[in-house]
Design brief:
2 domains, 53% helix, 13 helices, Spore Coat Polysaccharide Biosynthesis Protein SpsA, Chain A, 12% strand, seven-stranded mixed beta sheet, two-stranded parallel ribbon
């Protein structure tokens, strides 16, 4: 459990304190007044100079109208998005509009505990971290009256993200982050998991704050099958982002294997059907495979469409150098590592191919298919 020491007022911690509470909404007419009143109370009780930003996805139940009607009494600003929908993108819009040094994101249905706002904000203002995340799965956290299926879905969703972050609760949705960190940040989430997107792409210093999550009492939950499928798509995109070089290497190897098949087929056709000399046929097969591999790597592996002639010629030269590396490694292993006996030459060949493939990949990525102009 994280203990937050509240020494003095927030005004003493920073000369220009301003916290933006971002509330994405869609058909939350039953909850919007209560959440605005409760958040305002917590801000006042803790001496926090703050604002509440409502990002509404053009709710049909008058959510935005209710929020706007409270702006005379409470520090509320309302932004209605006519042609967009989605919690995560609504949060990004809130980041753009926020005037505070800290942006705090929470659900508008009172499922996130408003009394934890100060605990979420203080560590960032003190410079202890860049981000805080409300967590249900550490000491002091929990969920109120959750059915078994909901617990399984939540825990399972968190396990799927273990390869991306050490967060105990990556699907929480309750977070506070330094405004300067998200200004002009390259965030492009799918669906509703803005916390995971922020942690993976911005790599902030974060602290987990224990919270007790409560199911909404009013309105309809947005956690449907479509939202869960969006989460899986989002996970895949983030894994591709975090492990882009590894995934590119696997693709590069797959392209190489397809080229090996084409090389063999071409060689057999030219020798058996056209009666070409095997050495001459091998040259034609090599050029065909280089062109095939170049095209697939350009479109699929690296998705780069820079200067075609330059990238093709450099790719051809790199492959020729790679062939030399393969032969050189095999020669060293056969002559000086004693791998010329028995079937060890096969292992020597595999090691040579791996060495050449690795060097081909690194040089192709940095030279032929570089994103630099």
């Amino acid at each position: 459990m994280v203990n937050i020491q509240k020494e003095g007022s927030l005004a003493e911690l920073t000369n220009n304190l301003d916290v933006s509470i971002i509330l994405p909404t869609y058909n939350e007419a039953d909850n919007i007044k209560n959440i605005i009143v409760e958040v305002s109370r917590v801000l006042n009780d803790n001496g926090i100079k703050g604002e509440i930003i409502i990002i509404d996805d053009d709710s049909a139940d008058g959510t935005a109208v209710i929020a706007e009607s409270l702006s005379d009494k409470y520090p509320v600003r309302t932004n209605v998005r006519k042609n967009f929908r989605g919690l995560a993108t609504a949060v990004i819009k809130g980041f753009e509009l926020a005037r505070g040094n800290v942006c705090l994101v929470m659900d508008a249905d009172l499922s996130h505990p408003v009394e934890k706002i100060a605990d979420m904000v203080y560590p960032i203002l003190r410079g202890d971290c860049d981000m805080t995340v409300g967590c249900r799965y550490i000491a002091g956290g929990g969920c109120k009256e959750w059915p078994l299926l909901r617990k399984i879905i939540s825990k399972g969703s968190g396990l799927l993200a273990r390869g991306l972050t050490r967060l105990s609760d990556p699907t929480s949705g309750f977070m506070a982050v330094k405004k300067s960190l998200v200004t002009d940040a390259n965030l492009d989430p799918i669906g509703w998991k803005i916390v995971l997107e922020t942690v993976v792409k911005l790599r902030p210093r974060f602290i987990e704050i224990p919270i007790v999550f409560a199911d909404r009492q009013q309105g309809e939950s947005k956690l449907n099958l479509e939202a869960q499928l969006d989460y899986l798509r989002h996970l895949w995109r983030l894994y591709c982002y975090q492990y882009s070089s590894m995934i590119q290497f696997v693709k590069f190897c797959m392209v190489g294997l397809s080229g090996l098949v084409i090389d063999t087929i071409t060689l057999v056709i030219l020798v058996e059907l056209l009666a070409l000399d095997p050495l001459i046929a091998a040259v034609f097969a090599f050029l065909l495979v280089i062109t095939w591999n170049y095209g697939l790597n350009r479109i699929w592996t690296f998705n780069r469409f820079n200067n075609t002639l330059y990238s093709y010629i450099t790719f051809l030269l790199i492959c020729c150098v790679g062939l030399g590396i393969r032969i050189g490694v095999m020669h060293l292993l056969l002559e000086y590592a004693g791998m010329h006996t028995g079937k060890l030459y096969i292992l020597a060949s595999i090691i040579g191919i791996f060495s050449a493939t690795t060097s081909n990949f690194l040089w192709s990525k940095s030279i032929s298919f570089s994103d630099r102009k």
